[in-house]
Amino acid sequence: xxxxxxxxxxxxxxxxxxxxxxxxxxxxxxxxxxxxxxxxxxxxxxxxxxxxxxxxxxxxxxxxxxxxxxxxxxxxxxxxxxxxxxxxxxxxxxxxxxxxxxxxxxxxxxxxxxxxxxxxxxxxxxxxxxxxxxxxxxxxxxxxxxxxxxxxxxxxxxxxxxxxxxxxxxxxxxxxxxxxxxxxxxxxxxxxxxxxxxxxxxxxxxxxxxxxxxxxxxxxxxxxxxxxxxxxxxxxxxxxxxxxxxxxxxxxxxxxxxxxxxxxxxxxxx
Length: 270
Hints:
Elements: E1 2-6, E2 9-16, E3 21-25, H1 39-42, E4 47-51, H2 68-82, E5 87-92, H3 94-105, E6 110-116, H4 127-142, H5 145-156, H6 163-174, H7 178-188, E7 204-209, H8 216-223, E8 229-234, H9 241-244, H10 246-264
Parallel strand pairs: 3-4, 3-5, 5-6, 6-7, 7-8
Antiparallel strand pairs: 1-2, 2-4
Helix pairs in contact: 2-3, 5-6
GO molecular function: 3-oxoadipate enol-lactonase activity
Enzyme class: hydrolase
InterPro entries: AB_hydrolase_1, AB_hydrolase_fold, AB_hydrolase_sf
């Protein structure tokens, strides 16, 4: 296990393999373990870097307001610490939001960008949006993490043969720090960089599960705003695609990374 300090916070990270740097960003309430089914395959081809964002996993959980911008700043600090130069960046769910933020703020640090089951904003624009988020906000505060984790696990992995994944997800979720989880949840609501998507110039892949929380049509709309982006839909998958369809996900990502490397030649910064 390795750690680095940024703004008084000790942050956990891991490295595997050699080659071009490939950074994997986890989702809300999760950790580096989001990528347990990717690391062995990807590390054969790339220098794989993972980190636990503040409030998550083995990283510190400071008593402060969190923001997507502060998570992005933690990522930049890690890349500077490791002297990686431009990286391939993959983000799942909240990690995808951080990826979007990082892409518009620090384009010179990206070789390519892959967004998985995520969105470039979480805005409450209609009455139904406000009601939906109000319910989620209230439930997140009233329910125990054990209850939330069990409910999420059943929704993400409903098949009989996914019993081990359900159990694993529920156990991991129960280990979250409730205050840090709520602070991270609050960081998402109201955030957005959708108006800046045209600034993303590096090769971009958006991966969507066919049964994700948000419809494929939403991804189609924002993919059209990114100059070098394309969409890949993975069937028979829900929000945790890297875990419920690891083989298809790994092959989709590797093909994209290989094509990005070929198209950019020497891979100068985007």
